[in-house]
Amino acid sequence: MSLDDYGGGQHEQSDVLVVTTNDLPGYRVTRVVGEVFGLTVRSRHVGSQIGAGLKSLVGGELRGLTKTLAETRTQAMERLMEQARARGANAVLAFRFDVTSGADVGTEVCAYGTAVVVEALPA
C-alpha cells in the first residue's frame, strides 16, 4: 500500500501550483484567468458495493471505497490543472472539491478554483 492509495494532492514537479488559500505568499497575481474546474463521475463497482454492504455489518473503514474516492479526486484535480494550463494559468487559488452522490449510480467529484497567473516576488 502506497501513500497515494488513500490520499492525494499535488506532485512537487507540477507546473501549475494549486492552493486552497485566496492568496499566495511570496507571489504576485498578475492576471486572473477565471474559474476552472475538473469533473469526473465514477460508478460503483458491484464487487465493492457487496463488500461495503458486508463490511457495514461489522463496522470499520471501507478501504475499497476510500481508495476509489481518492483516485477520483486525483483525476478531478488533474483535469482542473489541465484546464488552468490550457487557459495560460500557472496557479489555481481557492481550490475546493465538491462531491455529490447521484441516485445510487455513482459519485460526481468536481475540483474547482480560480485560475491565475502569478510571478514570484523578488527576494
From TrEMBL:
Gene3D superfamilies: Hypothetical protein apc22750. Chain B. SUPFAM superfamilies: YbjQ-like. It comes from the Bacteria. It holds the Pfam family YbjQ_1. This is UPF0145 protein SRB5_65020. Belongs to the UPF0145 family.
